[in-house]
Design a protein that fits this description.
single chain, about 190 residues, Metallo-beta-lactamase, Chain A, five-stranded mixed β-sheet, 6 helices, 10 strands, about 25% strand
Length: about 190
């Protein structure tokens, strides 16, 4: 996902396909006549952080949480130039958004991005599209905490007009409830 502001474009997560790093920048520039001025990755997996080093080389400030950086370092993944120590509010041009760490779900470092004024929630891979038939890659997930983490997102992000998951369709505002239902079902299954 990216945000077009009067001060430039903010990129949330990066492609994981190296052949897409520059074409994404080119298409944003061609379509909006603006440069990417900031990139924030929402967790350490390659489909979120793959382009961090490349974008840093293009002099785009890159950010992750300190927790994401620790996991990236440990696993030999790409790392950001700047670290976020706590939930942080960014104002870029006319838009303000907050990074929020709700707890362990898809990964132990997953954050969401909340545009409070516009009521837009970018959930990254923590939130699944209503099309999803399961919670996806659970290699680094916490089956026990996932549902509670989604409830924290629901408590923080009241009445979202748009919920953008990390993969698949974003037109439904039911993806939080869908993700919660799948997380609760998985937790029950794992308890047996």
């Amino acid at each position: 996902m990216y945000l077009v502001t009067e001060k430039g474009v903010v990129l949330f997560d990066t492609p994981w396909d190296t052949t897409q790093f520059q074409p994404l920048l080119d298409s944003i520039n061609k379509r909006h006549h603006k440069k990417v001025v900031l990139c924030i990755a929402t967790h350490f997996h390659e489909d979120r952080t793959g382009g961090l080093t490349y974008y840093k080389q293009q002099e785009i400030p890159t950010y992750t949480t300190r927790q994401t950086d620790e996991l990236s370092k440990k696993r030999g993944m790409k790392r950001a130039e700047f670290l976020i120590d706590r939930d942080t509010v960014f104002t870029i041009g006319q838009y303000t958004f907050q990074t929020y760490f709700p707890g362990h779900g898809h990964t132990q470092d997953n954050i969401i991005i909340w545009f409070k004024k516009e009521k837009i929630l970018y959930g990254g891979c923590l939130i699944k599209s209503v099309e999803a038939v399961n919670l996806g890659n659970l290699t680094d997930a916490s089956v026990q905490d996932y549902a509670a983490t989604i409830k924290k997102v629901q408590a923080k992000c009241k009445y979202p007009k748009y919920i953008i998951p990390g993969h698949d369709d974003w037109r439904s505002t039911k993806s939080l409830e869908h993700t919660l239902r799948m997380a609760e079902e998985l937790k029950q299954k794992s308890a047996h």
